[in-house]
Design brief:
There is one protein chain. The chain is globular and about 60 Å long. The longest helix is centred in the last third of the chain and has 19 residues, at about 225-240. Helices cover about 45% and strands about 20% of the residues. The protein has two domains: about 15-165, Regulatory protein AraC (Jelly Rolls, Sandwich); about 175-295, Arc Repressor Mutant, subunit A, CATH 1.10.10. The chain has helices spanning about 90, 100-105, 120-135, 140-160, 175-180, 180-190, 195-205, 210-220, 225-240, 245-250, 260-270, 275-285, 290-295, and strands spanning about 15-20, 30-35, 40-50, 55-60, 65, 75-85, 110-115, 165. Mean pLDDT is about 85; it is low at about 295-305. By secondary structure, it is an alpha+beta fold.
């Protein structure tokens, strides 16, 4: 099984997806995940503590980040509005495209774009703002507009020298952070069952102590803190999308003690599971007038495989 986010961003005809994220968005809190697409992130308001592989960044309004495809990342926003633009760069290219050689170098890790391109911060933030405006307008010329803006973004990065040269065959994702991906995938396949630390360490080919250190460095969480968060996210999805009773949701998501599940859920979401289900039902009714916005990223909330 491919151990990455189970969501398709864009398509072959337009391999770009733009997400306008506010505190009301279903995926406002960015759980640990990765995806093959490159991601451009722009903070429009408030702050966002972003972890990219094993490095933390404190982002504020106007900041722009570039997250290479395959990189493990997560984020904790605070009173934040932010834009995410996911780009499948190879699909943007056609055979013989003049950009193909540079695209190949980016994909192979031979050309590594700076995660936080400070020198062109204002210009890149302006481009991100234009991407969001084009996305919101969805005019007849949207495919031309969004492709042009994405190419302008990469052009600005390369012309500004906001990158470093990598070694042949070296990929940024093949770090300690990359090595824990099999263990994350194992948790996400088996979250409904009891999981032992030795099983997870074995998936990563490490001793338990070394695995715990690597996992904490890469995600900021212990393995079992991550597992609990993942189980809670699956419980949220079940409460939103099924009529299962709370006891059934708890057991299906790996919680054998229902009282413990309710306490953890309240600590995480600020409400009980039943209150969460009712609030989501109200949200769904309100979304009828704006279905597209509410459906963004809804096809598997926090489901990362």
């Amino acid at each position: 099984m491919d151990n990455r986010e189970q969501i398709v961003h864009g398509d072959e005809g337009l391999p770009i997806a733009v997400y306008d994220v506010t505190p009301a968005h279903i995926r406002y809190h960015m759980n640990v995940h990765w995806h093959p697409e490159h991601e451009i992130l722009h903070v429009r308001r408030g702050s966002l503590c972003l972890r990219l592989n094993d490095v933390c960044y404190e982002l504020h309004a106007g900041d722009v980040m570039f997250l290479p495809g395959g990189a493990i990342h997560s984020g904790e926003p605070e009173c934040c509005d932010y834009t995410c633009v996911l780009v499948n760069l190879p699909l943007l290219m056609k055979t013989g495209d003049a950009c193909m050689e540079l695209c190949g170098r980016i994909q192979q890790g031979l050309l590594r774009i700076s995660p936080r391109p400070e020198r062109e911060r204002e210009a890149l933030a302006q481009l991100c703002g234009q991407m969001l405006e084009a996305h919101r307008a969805q005019g007849v010329g949207y495919p031309f507009a969004i492709k042009g803006l994405v190419f302008c973004f990469f052009g600005r990065i390369l012309n500004g020298g906001l990158y470093s040269e990598g070694e042949s065959g070296a990929r940024p994702a093949e770090s300690a952070a990359g090595k824990i991906k099999p263990a994350i995938a194992y948790m996400e396949r088996n979250y409904g069952s009891a999981i032992r630390l030795e099983e997870l360490a074995g998936q990563a080919g490490m001793t338990p102590n070394h695995f715990c250190r690597c996992f904490k460095a890469a995600t900021g969480l212990t393995p079992f803190s991550y597992l609990t968060r993942y189980r809670l996210s699956k419980a949220q999805y079940a409460l939103r999308s099924t009529d299962l009773p709370v006891t059934g949701v708890a057991l299906d998501c790996g919680f054998n003690d229902v009282s413990h599940f309710i306490r953890l859920f309240r600590e995480s979401c600020g409400m009980t599971p039943l209150q969460f289900r009712k609030s989501e039902q109200l949200r769904e009714r309100a979304a009828v007038a704006r279905p597209e916005e509410e459906r963004q990223w809804r096809g598997g909330v926090a489901v990362y495989e």
